[in-house]
């Protein structure tokens, strides 16, 4: 799975939201994108759309928490230019006192161990490219907590620490480590998944907020960060909508 002259960008969680938008953005920026997620039909349809637009994309169904599958996936690459660790999300918004440990476990598995799995497996190919970039989607939840956010905040702190530690450990090698920490992004599935299909609860997250970020806004920041000159490492990019001053300070018009 290498294309002479065309750098490869692997995007995890490319079946919806920020991952899908990032795949489109990186393809338009000249990367051959490899779309991964569990929903095969979604990534295959997106790969077809990107190819029809004259860019290059392939789909590879993958659960980032399945280490054996991730290792098998990695054998397909000798070199890659970019890895975007985007697969993740939140489950529940319960207080610490009543939160479900299984939700906490699952969030840690996906957001931290999933990112660790794919990063470990692809690091040799990133390094072999001579100019690799690892992007880790944390969140503003990885930088400050909020009531009801405990499990997600803990997991995204894990993702942040993974990025910061890796950057220290591989300094001097030709791989950049970029953390992107978005605030409120209105995507089709993030809040619905968090509230297990309760669309009313999900809608309340964005109620009255004039312009939450879109998946395209975040994809744009990711594409910008990875297309800086090789010696420029965007360590951390925090991006929020204008209407959000912190995780808990949000301007709502109604
Ligand atoms: N929306 C926000 O407000 C916001 C803010 C800050 C950070 N983020 C982070 O940005 C990332 C994308 O969020 P989003 O808003 O685009 O949410 P989303 O639409 O729910 O996307 C989540 C993606 O992760 C994939 N995924 C989940 N578990 C997976 C697994 N075990 N293996 C492989 N793929 C998996 C899903 O695909 P499949 O189900 O097909 O596997 C999906 O493509 C997440 O890490 C999220 O935590 C979101």
TrEMBL record:
PROSITE patterns given in the database record: ADH_SHORT (PS00061)
Protein name: Oxidoreductase
PANTHER family assigned: ALCOHOL DEHYDROGENASE
Domain of life: Bacteria
Annotated source species: Streptomyces xanthochromogenes
Family, as annotated: Belongs to the short-chain dehydrogenases/reductases (SDR) family.
A Pfam family recorded for this sequence: adh_short
Keyword terms of this UniProt record: Oxidoreductase
